[in-house]
């Protein structure tokens, strides 16, 4: 079954006319991520996501190539992000039992629901 794609919308970066499927266009997505890392993310949290995390993340994605949330719904979607079930900020670890391979939409939905990125918790 083929679903229709949502129409592209303007990038959320002020003054950018580019159309995108995401919140920001490719150029501004990188700028916004860098801004978030520098100004919004807690320095202690930033330390926990260094080179070691990248290696752990890459190994986990290699062994779990499909989004675990989509699989529960009977969909096969490539995973491209690794989620901490119990966030590091609340005592979680990089242990495999605390990780979950997700596609970007599922990871964004879980993060928004839990209020992790926007500090609503």
Could you please describe the fold and organization of this structure?
This protein has helices at 26-40, 43-48, 51-63, 68-72, 104-114; strands at residues 9-10, 19-20, 81-84, 99-102. It has 121 residues and is mostly helical. The protein has a domain at 50-114. The strands form 2 sheets. Strands 1-2 form a two-stranded antiparallel ribbon.
Attribute tags:
single chain, 121 residues, 5 helices, globular
**Strand percentage:** 5-15%
* Spatial gap, N to C terminus: 38 Å
Strands, count? 4
Shape: globular
Element order: H for helix, E for strand: EEHHHHEEH
Instruction: Tell me the Rg in angstroms.
Output: 16 Å
**Biggest β-sheet, characterized?**
2 strands, antiparallel
Helical segment count: 5
SS-derived structural category = mainly alpha
Biggest β-sheet: strands ordered side by side in the sheet: 1-2
Helix residue percentage? 40-55%
The mean pLDDT is 85
Query: Which spans of ≥5 residues are poorly predicted at pLDDT below 50?
Result: none
Q: What does the secondary structure layout of this molecule look like, with pairings?
A:
Blueprint: E1 9-10, E2 19-20, H1 26-40, H2 43-48, H3 51-63, H4 68-72, E3 81-84, E4 99-102, H5 104-114
Antiparallel strand pairs: 1-2, 3-4
Produce a short descriptive summary.
The protein is mostly helical. It has 5 helices and 4 strands, in the order E-E-H-H-H-H-E-E-H. Strand 1 (9-10) and strand 2 (19-20) form a beta hairpin.
């Amino acid at each position: 079954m083929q679903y229709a794609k949502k129409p592209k919308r303007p990038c959320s970066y002020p003054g950018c006319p580019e159309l995108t499927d995401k919140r920001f266009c490719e150029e501004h997505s990188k700028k916004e991520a860098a801004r978030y890392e520098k100004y919004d993310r807690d320095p202690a949290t930033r330390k926990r996501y260094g080179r070691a995390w990248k290696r752990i993340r890459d190994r986990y994605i290699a062994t779990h190539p499909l989004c675990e949330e989509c699989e529960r719904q009977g969909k096969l979607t490539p995973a491209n992000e690794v989620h901490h079930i119990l966030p590091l900020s609340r005592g979680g670890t990089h242990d495999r039992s605390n990780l979950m391979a997700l596609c970007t939409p599922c990871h964004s939905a879980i993060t928004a629901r839990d209020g992790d990125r926007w500090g609503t918790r």
